[in-house]
């Protein structure tokens, strides 16, 4: 059984019915079941960065099942078939693969920007915060090595924008740069609050999303959501700072917390509060602007056709015009 | 200057233009300002349980202003006037009154039920919770004397339902009794989770609302909201229990937290998550049923007319039919 | 040609492309058509409790067509094929089957509860109604043997909840038990009106839905709807009672009728009136609660996966969390 | 005490604070109450075609109260006053007036068209219906003298359009003429069904609205609505015709009933069914067109200003441009 | 290679997987691409009046690509296949066909009405306009031969109604006849404005839509829309008339322009202004009525089934009842 | 009769009932009417920057009426009164005032920024546009002296944001500066298109709004709207440039026109097209951000109270938190 890693990866979205499969995929949620006749089989999802398919291994054994990573990478041999109008992979042989031996890029998209450089610039911008309490809170996050490691790899979203490894970092970094550029034009705003609000607004995504093998929601993320998780993270750190003798006024935490809670800008997008401070409005607008710019330019660049228009974009309720005028 | 407490209280909603005023009211948000000519005056709100009016004291002094409670009770002498089509009270004399000397019932409505009895029954119902972690969490709230004192006096809402001292207690108590009555009919549900969810679902209202002199939102309550505050309260107690050696699984806290976050049932009512467990749906329905029953029967009983119909109820988008058929 | 009823039924949702079919299905809407070349063929739907597929019999004759039940049960021999991305059954032989010979359970889901027992309990609850006019109206329904026979087998809905034979009975029975349990907690409500309103609220579904071979809407049901049909049924019986000398006040009929018309709770769900009495609100909430509890627990139990989450539930706009905590 | 009927009527909407009142008004909902001191007073509404005001008679007696019509016309002597920012009439003397002695036109607006002529034309149009069952149903309505008398005086609506005595007749008449004019352009439609549908679409307004002294909803009208009442009327007559030996197919009643139920065109306007036949769409469009033309031209003509624009029209979400171009 | 035009056209919506294809189709958006191995292939859409499919020609050459019309008609030889659950045509040979040799009716639906006759009647109706400025404007359009040629062939819409060659003419013609029939019933309206408004309301569709080979949006049409294009056309002609010495008051152009802008009747349907004149309301209602009558009767006639109901109509949110009663 | 201009202006929103009025106001829409007795009177609006009141002059003459500016400034002597709960001014003497003699600032709010400096900076930014066609179009606007004069004084809106003389200039200027600051962060966007789109996006407001005496909509503005007017302005100039020999591609005009049409971002805000290019999204976001920042900071600064919260902001559906944290 050879792993065939020298050949280019056969991507999930390129598989057609009736192909012989001999490839490494990520496996998720494998389940051992028995048919009505009592035979054992394994149901699973097989995925890479381009999508996922159902996998079925008939005549399976508990030994095979137990040897599977849950989740992890596996070498799959089998065949693609249509079943009830859905493509699936019938698996004949399956074996766990050491993650160090796979090209992770094939399984998870990754930002094209330099993560170290972006994180460095974020630290520099956070360093400009002058209000001592806001600065202390923000730096408590920077000081949490594990969290910052997650922050640098988490995706910015599941599907809509910045849906890649490092996407959360890229989105936060770009929002901070936009804020730096336009805050001088709105001198009435409390700049420290805007910068800290941006830095922390999506921090809960590090807990809401799983992104080791494929992008998905954690159970906790789906039940609670990144907005509430970000709020909890701020409160936990504020309490720790107070316990350590650093005063953090409840008003500071509430003003920051309000930015977190309201940054989706509308109830129907999951914000339990509408923006009620100038700073909350600013963070909401910069978030929306940066997310949409990524979504729109990705959709325009992502099309391989030579048409002047992209396919219909459901989230934007329009097709996008791709032709450059200038 | 006599306080005239032996006469019945002159309620705000009974004042007509041109009356002489000699009465005790709650004062809120008094502000010292100067007119364009440089004279000082005091603007304030004067309130009781039936409403509030603007008060204006012309030719005021800093001494008078400083002596005012902010907020508190005051004896007001003056006259009612129409100003730009709004009724206001022109204040000639004003003096702080010791709260112990006023009949608080005139200023804040109070539930007609027996609060001690209701709290006792709540404790009994919470005692039926058998899951040790859920029970430990619920009892950590019962053990917090200060919080329970607030829980027993806080209103259930600002305007719509249970808007009285003890209203939160009455609403929670009635919801728990409804749950006890119908849980046997839905045996698939996890009863402990429903009961704990109801007990805690609005606990954050103790921090969201101020209810000492008149009902209002606290700053923190308006910025964060009772839903997120309830979630924070649960997490704080779960961490304290863990620190004290009682295991509380994150899954338990997330399932309870999810009930809290989703109990308004829809994004547009401020829930950042939609119900996604059978227990969350049950708590949402019982909450809505009990709130609406209070709102509807209060509106029907509250009308003094002999008409078969109440006035238009904006929140219900209908008038209510008052005639009894049976 | 053998019917093969000893083998387990091959369910519609288990058929894959390219299978040989030799099975009994319900047939609906068979139509005789001619191809562009002038050959006759029959188009039909073939169904069981798990779904339906298009069936096509090429080279058909008028004799075969005339022999088909419309609708009814048929023994089908043929083959499954993909056509324009939809699975269909190409029929080689088809023959009518006596309904008495099929296992009806395979074609129509049936409640797991004891229908006789449920109906007996409904009669007992209706017997508690003390207002003579409301009691007379309700008992006029109980006395209508044909209607009660339909009431005991009709489904509670097409797809969303209680979509099984006996579903209307089960839903009505459970709602009445919920009402009995919580009415003592809301003493201001007119209990007789709530109980009669629940008993009658969906009675028009006996005319709106067809449920002999498969669940579908009748023409009349689709044009008029069960809400208006229930109202008409009440008026018809009230007039019959009056003609027989039993006084039934228009006010009683209007109050009951209002509960019927408003029990969907919102215009967008087909109620032409919004609830305007406390009793109408109560019936609306109990209906919604019981329907959702059935829908949610069925979705949770209905999944065969071991995942913590169900598939996306479009009507609830969420996936459901299946993991039990307690 | 003189009734002063020779002077022009002092209209409600022309009364200013501080006027002496000596005029005939319609009285509605008079109630005898006692003040906190135990004195009796009467609260009532005083109305004419231009609006209504609260009336208060202090130091009233049971004798005076019992002598009042409920509702009816009264001669009022008193004075207008502002009370809590609302204008009211303080009544010193009040006495019932024989309706035959008042100029009813001052109290209820009346269509400017010739009612006898309009009804005659409606009868002629209904006579063109050729389908015997539809014709029999429509003529059963024409044969009901009491109902036709109501049909000729009922208003077409409360506020929005045709809100005058004879308004229902005028609206129905005009819709029938529009249908006659355009049905030849849509030959696929079943003209009989459209004409009968228009004739009957709002018949329930004769029961929904009260219009003897002032326009208001009846209790039954508010609980049930004219749409459901119209449906009930059709069914009642269909059953009477069948009992008398005239066959009326359920399909005919359902198709007509569907037009009634769906003629508001959308759930949010109180239709429990959306149009699902070409004829139902046609009736919905003609109803909407004729109602809006009346509403728009009345708003344009009703303004006394010389401005090019009317006041804001809330139901239309715009101001209307009044300048004629041609 | 024979074109096989004597056999009936094989329509796109009748192709099943695995068929041999030897037929003429319209080709759109052909693109020359290279595979990962460097081989050239052509991607294209192949269409007729019943739909479109993806076409793929592997092992293509630049010569073949350059010879293709973009767009135009082609003779295609190849085979139908399922690819990722979508039917596509694998093309072996492809050759341009002279449009004069194809039966255009197979590729673009055409109105069944007589276009010359309809245009003649439109000219006659426009001739009845008496206001000299409105008449001058309308006739400036009639005098534009190229535009009128487009006006007589453009479709009335992409999918919903009058989606055929001549559809715009048919829709405009029928609306004008409806207006002629009912304007006498609404004498307060300015008839000239209504007639001119109808004549011009969709004129921009001649620029918004492309309809030579298949119906599609032009780039300019999709960016700007027919509503704004119609407005621009009116202004351009008004300026030309003024330049030529014919006075056209801005008020006339604004009133006509307002009808154009508001004729979709609601913001969500793309009208930037809501109707604010009686004439604008009339044009909006007649447009909606005529469009819906076409949509509903086409859906009812278009079904080949013998069912009493059509398939679900998504735009109408209902199925349609097809059974004739009369 | 003295004009009293040395005393501070008595602002409309400071007038209480029963005051003697001797002041200069702007007069709008004066109308000469006759009472039912045949006496002539004048109805008018009297306004300044703080609001407007109805004015009534009884016993007026045609001579007085004819002497009034329509609109303009007048010296008014009279008295304030409540009439039907609305404050009005009963005018005894009225006389036209030369506009040069009034302090225009009292009647129309004016931006606090330096208009010459802002316009100079706009010219500089427009000068950075390098695409020759886009530059030519933008400069054709700069070259129109009359239009630029209007552009420099027109308000940015009626009520919501930048509602002051010079507001359009200030809003456009700030948007251009925001774009300059953030365009480098979004290098995929066509910067020239964004800058020209911003410069022209609201140009039609110069025709939509009247702002000489008070802010109001012009007839043409209300019928057509500034969005469509801006589009017309671009087309007019493009045609003039082409006539003068400067090539302007239709694609350039359409791409710019699309930005104009879509810049409100949603149908319900009056955009007939949704953004479909990256540049259109950017202009929409910058417009919304700058408008909201003005609206929010104005609301926060505009309150004179010392409360932590502003009054309810209906357009934002919240109160705003005013307390500064930093």
What report would you give on this structure?
6 copies of one chain form a homohexamer. Chain A has helices at residues 62-67, 115-126, 132-142, 145-153, 167-182, 191-200, 205-208, 219-224, 226-243, 250-262, 278-302; strands at 20-34, 40-48, 51-57, 72-83, 86-97, 209-210, 216-217. The first copy, chain A, is α+β, with helices and mostly antiparallel strands and 326 residues long. In chain A, the strands form 2 sheets. A 5-stranded mixed barrel of chain A has the order 1-2-3-5-4. A two-stranded antiparallel sheet of chain A has the order 6-7. In chain A, α2 (115-126) crosses α5. The N and C termini of chain A lie far apart (55 Å). The interface between B and C is large, with 47 and 48 residues.
Question: What would the keywords be for this entry?
Answer:
homohexamer, 326 residues, alpha+beta, five-stranded mixed barrel, two-stranded antiparallel sheet, 7 strands, 18% strand, globular, disordered N terminus
């Amino acid at each position: 059984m050879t792993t065939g890693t020298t050949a280019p990866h056969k991507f999930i979205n390129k598989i057609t019915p009736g192909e012989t499969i001999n490839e490494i995929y990520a496996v998720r949620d494998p389940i051992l079941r028995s048919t009505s006749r009592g035979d054992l089989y394994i149901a699973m999802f097989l995925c890479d960065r381009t999508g996922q398919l159902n996998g079925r291994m008939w005549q399976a054994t508990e030994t095979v099942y137990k040897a599977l990573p849950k989740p992890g990478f596996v070498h799959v041999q089998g065949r693609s078939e249509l079943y009830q109008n859905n493509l699936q992979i019938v698996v004949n042989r399956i074996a766990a693969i050491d993650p160090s031996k796979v090209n992770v890029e094939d399984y998870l998209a990754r930002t094209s920007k330099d993560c170290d450089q972006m994180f460095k610039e974020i630290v520099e911008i956070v360093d400009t915060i002058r209000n001592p309490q806001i600065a202390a809170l923000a730096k408590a996050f920077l000081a949490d090595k594990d969290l910052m490691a997650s922050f640098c790899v988490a995706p910015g979203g599941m599907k809509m924008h910045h849906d890649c490894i490092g996407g959360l970092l890229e989105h936060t970094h770009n929002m901070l740069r936009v804020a730096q550029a336009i805050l001088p034009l709105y001198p009435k705003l409390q700049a420290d609050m805007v910068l800290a609000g941006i830095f922390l607004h999506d921090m809960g995504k590090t807990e809401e999303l799983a992104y080791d093998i494929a992008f998905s929601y954690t159970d906790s993320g789906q039940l609670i959501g990144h907005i509430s998780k970000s709020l909890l993270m701020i409160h936990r750190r504020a309490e720790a700072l107070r316990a350590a003798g650093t005063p953090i006024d409840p008003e500071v935490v509430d003003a920051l917390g309000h930015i977190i809670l309201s940054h989706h800008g509308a109830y129907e997008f999951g914000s339990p509060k509408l923006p009620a401070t100038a700073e909350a409005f600013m963070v909401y607008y910069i978030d929306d602007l940066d997310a949409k710019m990524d979504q729109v330019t990705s959709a325009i660049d992502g099309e391989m056709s030579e048409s002047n228009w992209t396919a219909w974009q459901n989230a934007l309720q329009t097709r996008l015009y791709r032709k450059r005028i200038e």
